[in-house]
Prior knowledge:
By secondary structure, chain A is of the alpha/beta class. Chain A has one domain: Thiamin diphosphate (ThDP)-binding fold, Pyr/PP domains (Rossmann fold, 3-Layer(aba) Sandwich), CATH 3.40.50.970. Helices cover 42% and strands 10% of the residues of chain A. Chain A is built from eleven helices and seven strands. A five-stranded parallel beta sheet of chain A has the order 1-2-3-7-6, sandwiched between helices. Chain A is globular, with a radius of gyration of 19 Å. The model of chain A is unreliable at 1-11 (pLDDT under 50). The relative contact order of chain B is 0.12. Chain B folds into two domains: 3-182, 3-Layer(aba) Sandwich (Rossmann fold), CATH 3.40.50.970; 196-333, Rossmann fold (3-Layer(aba) Sandwich). The mean pLDDT of chain B is 96. The two termini of chain B are 34 Å apart. Chain B contains eleven helices and 14 strands. In chain B, the strands form three sheets. In chain B, strands 3-2-4-5-7-6-12 form a seven-stranded mixed beta sheet, with helices on both faces. Chain B has helices spanning 6-20, 44-48, 60-72, 91-104, 134-138, 151-163, 212-225, 243-253, 268-280, 302-305, 312-324, and strands at residues 3-5, 24-28, 53-55, 76-80, 114-119, 144-146, 168-173, 180-182, 196-199, 204-208, 230-234, 237-239, 256-263, 289-293. Chains A and B meet through helix 5 and helix 6 of A and helix 3 and helix 4 of B.
Amino acid sequence: MSTSKTKNAAQASAKDNAEDFLRMYRQMVRIRTFEDNANQLYLSAKMPGLTHMYSGEEAVAVGICEALKVTDKITSTHRGHGHCVAKGADFKEMFCELLGKEEGYCRGKGGSMHIADQSNGNLGANAIVGGSMGIATGAAFTAKLLGKDDVTVCFFGDGATAQGLMYEVMNMAALWNLPIIYACENNGYSEYTKTAEIAAGSITGRAEAFGIEAHTVDGQDVLAVNSLTEQLVERCRKGEGPFFIELMTYRYHGHHVGDINREYYRSKDEEKDWRENKDPITRFARHLTSEGIATEEELEAMQAEIKADATAAVEYALKAKYPDASEVDMHVYAA
Amino acid sequence: MREITLSQAVNEALAEEMRRDETVFIIGEDVAEAGTPFKVLSGLVEEFGTARVVDTPIAEPGFMGIAVGAAMTGSRPVVDLMFGDFIFLIMDQLCNQAAKTHYMSGGKLSVPLVLRTNLGATRRSAAQHSQSLHALVAHIPGLKVALPSSAYEAKGLMKTAIRDNNPVVIFEDKLMYQEKAGVPDEEYLIPFGVANVKREGTDITLIATSSMVQVAEKAAEILAAEGISAEVIDPRTIVPLDEATLIKSVKKTSRAIVIDEGHQSYGVTSEIASRLNEKAFYHLDAPVLRMGAMDVPVPFSPALEDLTVPTPEGVAANARKLVAGEMLDGEMIHAA
């Protein structure tokens, strides 16, 4: 495992980066706010089906996606709202999709677990754990084949490291030097089971076995995640890929919104500790205020503005129309 | 017209499409210098290089997944799956990912890829290298399925498949790679969903796919000698299926046998027979008969294996009974 860094974002001039930092903060708050609203939609029985909350992991998606260009690709997971927002998606289309409405990103045909936003390079969330690892590697293959400098980030959880597909595609990515970063969001739980019970050995060791340079980073520190990702993205563009990052993080909610009584696998004390002492948004807010980049009032105003945006988007989505019945057999085949 | 083998026809189709479109590439096991165990791809790596004729490790789900992602981002992969039996290994990538991406994204993403693989028993390869599994994928909305019955179809369907914006699975009969057929020098494409009436007849319709087209044609010869006029139709693609041509023929002949090398139960023969039943019932003089492969794993011993697939004699015997209006007993609804 390497922890070397050529640039330490935290030490860089705060004033020079003020705009970037505030955008990162805004994106993290947008994810948290989106999820709070999505959770409410579920609890108030206004959302069909269920969903998997990203809250607690915001620094991972934002730190990584802020290092990418719009043309760079990502693949996402069943816990994918954070990736979608961080890669540039709008609340309105996202809430419409969660509610199965025509104006959703996928015209209501995908829902929470399949949101794709190809205009921003998001190739889609995937409801098969580990199912997108081939897709991400294939996107990187296209970049190499067609001589584009696009980089692909493959998001997946610690649970997906148990899937065989990961080893097959990492092997090929390493053999062919593909411009891809495998981003393992290690939130400590594979559904309702502790990661320690499903993963033998080290997570980064899996990538290193293929000769892939692997890093472990604090996934609650958006600047650390962003700084590392920027370096790796740059190196991917120069043909030095692939890379692997294990991001240590935590999901505040259960496996999905309906996983309420979860003390049989996770204690309330543990959850409380992460929320109170390791929250990525609170932590970054402290950094912004202590560095004089923003005042607490300014951050609160930003939060309020985002909250209002989300409320308006939810209202819009609740009233938006469902797809017409004629759409049911539309898009089975491409023209 | 010149005659070339089915293997050469596939090779020509790939070479022509790769020259035409630089986003087309081939990916699979031993596709480059080895040109596959059946030597279908020989010479392609010499022309197009290893960047576009890509040898992979033995990792079918992995390279299938890579092809899906490549197709979603602007490439047109042709995946080489060495044996049709290995399709079980790639089912998630093919059926959960490739087949559903266009629909799940509300039409925003598409997966223009071709999966080339094969089918067919009687090569003495036993149960894991002899299956005809096209019905499995034909069941999944979002996939198209082509079954070439000769070198001519193999070339024209492959070119159409590569230009299609959907995942297309092409099953070639591995026993036909060295069989020759007339293939024009000039370029041609065979549209999907257009059946080919191979032989016209008036007493019974034999609907047959892939290698079973030859079986049906031989059966028609046997029947002709006895004064029974059989029409032979090759659907060429089972998804999309040219239902209209099949129904029109059956309304004319009033009898039909559907012959396909997949297992008979829950298979292609069942699907086509059922559609004829629904849409041509009042024109029928006899039940539509299914003749698929026996519902057994393909056995190794030649003495057993040859019993499992339909033969010209078996088809002719069943046709004779249908035309005579005789009841069919249980044993006749199986192969041979």
